[in-house]
Amino acid sequence: MGVGWYPPPMRRLLLSVLVLGVSSSAAAQSRPQVSASQLAIRAAELKLGPAVLRGGAHGVLPEVLVELTRAPATPAELAHELAALRAAGLEVVHAGGTPLAYQKYVVVRGEPSALQRASVMPGVRRIQPPIPAGLPSLDRSRSLLGAGAAAGARAQHGRLTGRGVVIADVDTLADVFHPDFFHGDGGWYDWIDVNGDGVFEPGVDGIDLDRDGAISAGEIAQLLRVTPLDISTGSEGSGVRGAGFQPGVDYLYLDTNGDGERSFGPAAGYTDDAPAFGEPLFVPDDVNQDGKLTTEERLVRLGTTKFQQLYARVNWGGIRHDRVYQRGADMIHVPSDITGGVYGYSDGLHGTGVLSIAAGGVALPSRRWVGLAPEADLVLAFGLSSSFTAPVVWALQQQPDILIHEASIWSSVAMDGTDTWSSLIDGSPEALHICPTGNIGGAFKHGVISIAPSAEGRMRFQVPSNLQQMELTLHVRGGEQVTFSLLQPGGAEITLEGNRPLEGGGSSYFYGSEVTARGTLLQMNIMTSPPAGDYEAIIRSTDASALTVHGYLSDEAGFSYSTAWEPSIATDESTAAAPSVASGCLGVGAVPAHLDSEGGWARGGPEAAGELRIYSGQGPRIDGAPVVDVVTPDNPWVAGPAGDIFPTYPGYAVMPHAGSMVFGGTSGAGPHAAGVAALLVQAGQSGAAALEALRLGAVSDALTGEVPNQRYGFGRLDAALALGTTRRSAPPTVRLELEPPFAAPGERVRVIPIASDDVTQSANLRVRWDRAYDGTWDGELGPVEPLEVQQGEAPLRIKAQVWDEEGWVAEAAALVPHSAGSGGTGGAGGSAGAGGIAGAGGTAGAGAGGPGAGDGGPAGGSGCGCSTPQSAPRNGAWLLLVSAFAYGARRRRAKPNSAKAKAP
After folding, report:
1. Residue 237 — φ and ψ, nearest 5°?
2. Nearest-CA neighbor of 657 among 348, 367, 364?
3. What is the number of helices (H) and of strands (E) in the chain?
4. CA distances from 718 to 491, 630, 722, 810 (A)
5. Predicted confidence (pLDDT) per residue in 814-865, tens digit
6. Residue 521 backbone phi and psi in degrees, to 5
7. Are 219 and 207 a contacting pair, CB within 8 Å?
8. How far apart are CA 440 and CA 436, in angstroms?
9. Nearest C-alpha neighbor of 710 from the set 593, 589, 606, 577
């Protein structure tokens, strides 16, 4: 998220230590020209992907978005384009008798063969997938990473969810009260169908908290809606999610004090030992993923905070705060904001977004809002002072398995990997370090010139008006016999040493020069209130060798286009910032998770799917060593901190409790890699071995070009490949049948799993059972065979999880009524789309097939409600089409070994 995303009065200080994004102005300044060959690549790879066909899994033709190569200029041209689409066999969707066409976008529906024909029409740029009914969030980026197959890649460890792994983050504060940051360890609960309609309805039906089989006034379940807030406008993101209760996204709570909202925190009288720090909070388990909660399905209560420790250290502008918060003692007292908006936004915004991506949510198949390693524990270090040293060192002291360095520093620091932060990283190989590469690509912050022996070089840059402060840092490679001076807009030249007045006001402060351990001559300057205009940095050499000079500029605009080098010397090479220049970290660049064409909320930019973000920092390091290792998605919907997003503009954008926001920049890319790293650590692969697996677990294609390279590193990270498995379009399907469909206490019942898969033969599928549906799997994976159980005094609840040979899972649940007349929807629910962490995903872009219907029998009816879920069609035509138009990504056959990945 860049400063250009905020309304004009909010262009306040965005410190360079935060990796948030790039402004629209920077993107406009650096929009690349697209060659004919690049367009051909996009035509082949991006026009039609598996997500476009997702709606077909329901037996209903999907409504997709055709993007034309240009907007029709007249009604006649539009009519011509629509006629061409109809001729290809597509139906143009109408609303009120008018075609749904806006500028160059047309909504259509059609058979796969018609979509295929349209995708190669000369007037069609690409075909976008349908916007799903639910919230397009981390399910998209998880799918792009192949997280579904990755979670089941090591069956001997169970589902990989990050359990037992500690992820640390050097960042801002985070909202410790957001539901994303509680483990689902508070127990499993039934809900009671108060109105007898067989489907859960917030505000009507109840959660049996005291397990007495009845609902009291304090047990009526209330909806805690996950609201997608567009923080640039302060309003809900238009068209992002559907109305009403969505069990795959929303939460439920019990309003025990009757005040009409969820109460939490010390102000409401709660202490650190309170589950979820407040009133009872629950996650629905929509096992069959049909978008509703039926009586065979249960809820898990949120309990323990994921934060083990949190260090908040502020010494800035008269604000003093220095405290370590501990889980079980005082974590509930972590403030949501300390500085009052010194960054221009709430202190909790950045850290909340990052950690939500890495470890947010609960690992249930039906949950779409889930991070890569949702069962990991968290350590957070927030520091704001003259130095970041304290929080970094503190984070290292906690001995985390993974440490995310959410920082981007490119001025007043050595860019050859010898800076203090990089040295700390290189000196602690026991942790797996993740470093976003920063967001100054396309902003003209980096310039390069060559100087012949004993010659002079000039580097021109422009300073805008009303600038408070800027920094000029020069790096000389190849020699040390040089002097530096600055030519001002008024024509005066000053030597860059000591403190000097500037023409027209302000001062220049020369404050450092050194030769680094890698032979870089570093020269650092600050200019306060500099006059606007063109400046020239003059470098005069008396060295007998040719020199290369790298110049970096920064000011209070952060990553936005502001102070800038002359375009003739500006380059996006070597824009990867510290500490990603450390040899011992995984440098992570960014590609989009959501595209600009999906909606204004996406803030997607001009890039196509899989294409490197304009702002994403690139290599090489200024000494020639590679920096970027992998690229990952960067702008999903994530958890947002409750309260004013911009404290200095109260009321402009107020995030509700459990709200969400789009989070972009390489800041959003880094935690995706950290989450995959947590899965590797859980599977027994840590340190250098895990770094190597992440590099080799990347894919390349025509967009990335030959890898490794300085833009994409080894390619787009693929979690499945990093864990040594493959991925495909859909997980298995499963449903449960009961014989007999109901039973009295003490009677025996056979629970028969009916499972299928389009890759694994039925004989090779495996199943495990949760006989009490209490979150505990009873026994190891075994053959898919009937299970005999005995009915208890309370009706039996059973859950099954089926695995295929590639690590994908599907789940089904059953409720065994006591008698034919005991009623309620019971019985089976199947899942055709479980493919994420613990089966999470199964949504747009996840290749999920379709949700199971699992609608059971009518309330009070005589059946067990063991209906067959509507699974995805598995015929050859669909599979062939999906295969033909999937990304042309491939795993490289040969990659350099880790010794070549980054120079020491």
Report:
1. -60, 120
2. 348
3. 14, 49
4. 54, 9, 6, 21
5. 999 997 544 433 344 444 344 333 333 332 233 222 323 222 222 222 222 2
6. -85, 115
7. yes
8. 12
9. 589
